[in-house]
């Protein structure tokens, strides 16, 4: 890492303003990039057009700046990168096939196979060899090797060694959805490759998705970034704090200085950072060495520039 430039990113979805959970992920990725003297990019993941909220992207960018987090280079939007996703689809070639199955049909198949209760809906391969007569294609899926199984291993900087058998635990997965939108797995891999991302720091809710992304990276001939998945903030019911579970915006337009006590310090405490500061500028000066101390506690020796 000392000899290769660090490029990290924060990739929010514009489905509403930032909340504490998304600030935790943004802070971790920002601190890791700044500690390593690298670039910190911001990419708006807006391919799920039905969920986008008008103006949310600008609200997110303004909140990051009010928190003292300045990105490098230009902000990018996924909806401006359709050509890249189409090119990746063509490159995947015969590994892609049309699927007519709904989630309900996949769940019913899982029940018939005695697999009810598994954490994921494992696709049983119904359309792998072609669509049944009268069936209309909905999504596009990526074939995963069946024999031998597609077992992906990787090292996460917080979670340690991670392994997943994609064939058995996920099955052939969607790269273009039934609604015509690009699936997260394909879009994020293509974007990270195009932007030269070397380090991905994000929430642990995406840890389970990483093997699928590594598999896509292999098929597309893209380099593998390093990964670090931080714990996610939960609400009182033990659910991931998100817009879907009623998470409130941390930035309600109050003076920027108030964000130190209402947002930045709580997010730092959640990450386990020992930070004391009386201004946003001093917060970041203190937070970078605190992040370094946290990495060392996880057995990592960061390489400062």
From TrEMBL:
Binding of L-glutamate, residues: 9-13, 45, 184, 202
GO process terms (BP): glutamyl-tRNA aminoacylation; tRNA modification
Xref: InterPro entries: Glu-Q_tRNA(Asp)_Synthase, Glu/Gln-tRNA-synth, Glu/Gln-tRNA-synth_Ib_cat-dom, GluQ/Sye, Rossmann-like_a/b/a_fold
GO molecular function: ATP binding; glutamate-tRNA ligase activity; zinc ion binding
Cofactor(s) in the UniProt record: Zn(2+)
UniProt superkingdom: Bacteria
Keyword Aminoacyl-tRNA synthetase: yes
Entry GO terms, CC: cytosol
EC code: 6.1.1.-
Alphabetical list of SUPFAM superfamilies matching this protein: Nucleotidylyl transferase
Cofactor binding note of this UniProt entry: Binds 1 zinc ion per subunit.
Residue numbers binding Zn(2+): 99, 101, 123, 127
Xref: Pfam families: tRNA-synt_1c
Top class in the EC scheme: ligase
Motif ('KMSKS' region): 240-244
Motif residue range(s): 'HIGH' region: 12-22
UniProt xrefs under NCBIfam families: PRK05710.1-2, PRK05710.1-3, queuosine_YadB
Purpose: Catalyzes the tRNA-independent activation of glutamate in presence of ATP and the subsequent transfer of glutamate onto a tRNA(Asp). Glutamate is transferred on the 2-amino-5-(4,5-dihydroxy-2-cyclopenten-1-yl) moiety of the queuosine in the wobble position of the QUC anticodon.
Homology family: Belongs to the class-I aminoacyl-tRNA synthetase family. GluQ subfamily.
Descriptive protein name: Glutamyl-Q tRNA(Asp) synthetase
Gene encoding the protein: gluQ
């Amino acid at each position: 890492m000392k000899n290769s430039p660090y490029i990290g990113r924060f990739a929010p979805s514009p489905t509403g303003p930032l909340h504490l959970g998304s600030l935790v992920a943004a802070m971790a990725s920002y601190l890791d990039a700044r500690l390593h003297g690298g670039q910190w990019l911001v990419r708006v993941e807006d391919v799920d057009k039905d969920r986008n909220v008008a103006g949310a992207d600008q609200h997110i960018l303004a909140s990051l700046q009010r928190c003292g987090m300045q990105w490098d280079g230009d902000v990018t939007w996924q909806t401006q990168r359709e050509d890249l996703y189409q090119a990746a689809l063509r490159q995947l070639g015969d590994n892609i096939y049309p699927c007519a199955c709904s989630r309900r049909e996949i769940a019913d198949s899982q029940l018939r196979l005695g697999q009810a209760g598994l954490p994921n809906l494992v696709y049983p391969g119904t359309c792998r060899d072609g669509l049944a007569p009268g069936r209309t294609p909905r999504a596009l899926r990526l074939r995963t090797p069946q024999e031998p199984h597609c077992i992906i291993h990787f090292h996460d900087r917080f979670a340690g060694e991670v392994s997943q058998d994609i064939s058995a635990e996920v099955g052939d997965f969607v790269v273009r959805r039934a609604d015509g939108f690009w699936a997260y797995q394909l879009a994020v891999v293509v974007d990270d490759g195009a932007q030269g991302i070397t380090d991905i720091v994000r929430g642990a809710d995406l840890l389970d998705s990483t093997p699928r992304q590594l598999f896509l990276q292999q098929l597309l001939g893209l380099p593998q970034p390093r990964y670090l998945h931080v714990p996610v903030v939960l609400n009182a019911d033990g659910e991931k704090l998100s817009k879907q579970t009623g998470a409130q915006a941390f930035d309600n337009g109050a003076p920027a200085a108030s964000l130190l006590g209402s947002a930045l310090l709580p997010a730092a405490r959640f990450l386990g950072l020992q930070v004391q500061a009386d201004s946003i500028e001093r917060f970041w000066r203190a937070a970078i060495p605190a992040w370094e101390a946290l990495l060392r506690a996880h057995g990592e020796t960061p390489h400062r520039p």
